[in-house]
Amino acid sequence: MPCTSRKGGSSIPGALEGRSTLHKAERGIPVKRCVERAFVGLAIVAAVIGGVAAWEAWGGGKMYWTDLGIDKIQRVGLDGTSMEDLITIGLIAPRGIAIDMVGGKMYWTDSGTLKIRRANMDGTNMEDLITTGLTAPGAIALDGAGGKMYWTDSATDKIQRATLNGTGVEDLITMGLSAPWGIALDVTGGRMYWTDAGTGKIQRAKLDGTGVQDLVRTGLKIPWGIALDVAGGKMYWTDAGSSKIQRANLDGTSVEDLIITYSSGPMGGGGQRYGIALETAR
């Protein structure tokens, strides 16, 4: 079946969405004209809140995702049942999503409306938080205890943060980036980790943006999603260029290939691995 864009440009759920196709091609990043079902962000509610498992506190474990193919945010039980449409209007290209279980809110980025928004976990009470200064907001991560949200912007090549209410926007990393996408927080250790699809690096810095370190800078093609197992001392990431899933120590040493087989796309072509999340021992 032919695949054509419904938004007038590349609809790949990519780190460079919002840039021109020419700019993408110049960076050597493959451009796809559309993804029929583009599940970009995914958050799973199955952690422990104050000693009560989230699936009990919320009436059942849920996973939440953004779908820029149909411009919706949806959720479903962890067993795949009871799918719900949560946000169906006002979206153009929803991308990253993160859950604040204690506050009972979901947060997401939209590179079409150029906004960061939040709503109750059932989709009610949608609020605009950031409405200016964004060009291609991508992944988003929350520090609930610290009252901050962090996000990447793959067009301005920045990592930024603000309060959970959207006030006090700060530029944290503004130099040395070239299409940052994935972001993950080690709040206890006071560090943020990110992937950069343009430079082909994984880096980290303090939560205020100082002390930037290159962790993995060779052997990567298009590093994308990233997740941390802080207790285990490991970081895990996907590479949309090599279709690998890899891991390393939190300081970037001892890189290991975990999944190296090339995934198959929905229409028989080669797939590209993007998002990643971990279930670790509670």
Description:
By secondary structure, this protein is mainly β. It is built from two helices and 22 strands. The strands form six sheets. The protein has a four-stranded antiparallel beta sheet with strand order 1-4-5-6, with no helix packed on it. The chain has a four-stranded antiparallel beta sheet with strand order 7-8-9-10, with no helix packed on it. A four-stranded antiparallel beta sheet has the order 11-12-13-14, with no helix packed on it. Strand 11 and strand 12 form a beta hairpin. The N terminus is likely disordered.
Give a summary of the structure in a few sentences:
With 282 residues, the chain is mainly beta. The protein has helices at residues 21-26, 54-57, and strands at 39-45, 48-49, 52-53, 62-67, 72-77, 84-87, 94-100, 105-110, 115-120, 127-130, 137-143, 148-153, 158-163, 170-173, 180-186, 191-196, 201-206, 213-216, 223-229, 234-239, 244-249, 256-259.
> Percent of residues in helical segments?
under 10%
Residue fraction in strands: 35-45%
Largest sheet: 4 strands, antiparallel
- Global morphology: globular
CATH superfamily: TolB, C-terminal domain
- Coarse structural class: mainly beta
Number of domains: 1
Number of E strands: 22
Radius of gyration, taken over Cα atoms and rounded to an integer in Å: 18 Å
Low-confidence stretches: 1-38, 46-59
Q: Whole-Å distance between the termini?
A: 44 Å
Number of helical elements: 2
Mean pLDDT: 80
CATH T-level topology:
Neuraminidase
Strand order of the largest sheet: 1-4-5-6
State the name of the first-level CATH class: Mainly Beta
H/E series:
HEEEHEEEEEEEEEEEEEEEEEEE
CATH architecture: 6 Propeller
